[in-house]
Amino acid sequence: MRYQITGMHIDIGEALQTHVKDELGAVLQKYHQRPTDANITFSKSGHEFVCETTVHLSTGLTAAAKAHATEIYAAFDECGEKLDKQLRRYKRRLKDHHKDRTEPVEISEGASYILASGPESEEQEPESLQPIIVAEMETKIPSLTVGEAVMQMELAGAPVLVFRNEKKDGVNVVYRREDGNIGWIDP
Q1: How far apart are CA 41 and CA 8, in angstroms?
Q2: Which residue from 61, 79, 169, 172 has the least number of CB within 10 angstroms?
């Protein structure tokens, strides 16, 4: 497994890196997952340390967690506990999907844009109705069943997930509704 442990404006010592590798490895080993890589980023927000962890599994699923604490080790430990809870909660569902799925999730490439609206003025008509593109990047669109897409969205802590539906071979969207339920768009 590859670990990428970085600090944003923080020096990450060898002892912390060893602690992260040992603890995260133990969590993943406990659930017999096959991780491919893990990205752990430490930063400082005011007086607290922030730890963001993303683990990519060989099945194509991604688990993510974020935690804050006044000490850097405590921030990572809390983040590790959140990952442990996520993997424990979805252990049965992950195992069930492994039985049906013999190959890793197929990933397609797609474009992702961040749009910004122009200056808001009620008196002025905008010169063009085209939005300003602030960022343009490539993104990956997994080929999943609806159940796997919901699980992936919840594991990643994302509010929305765009995926290619394996059963209908079309692009679908699952999202968390304001009432807490999951919505599914199948055009």
Answers
A1: 7
A2: 169
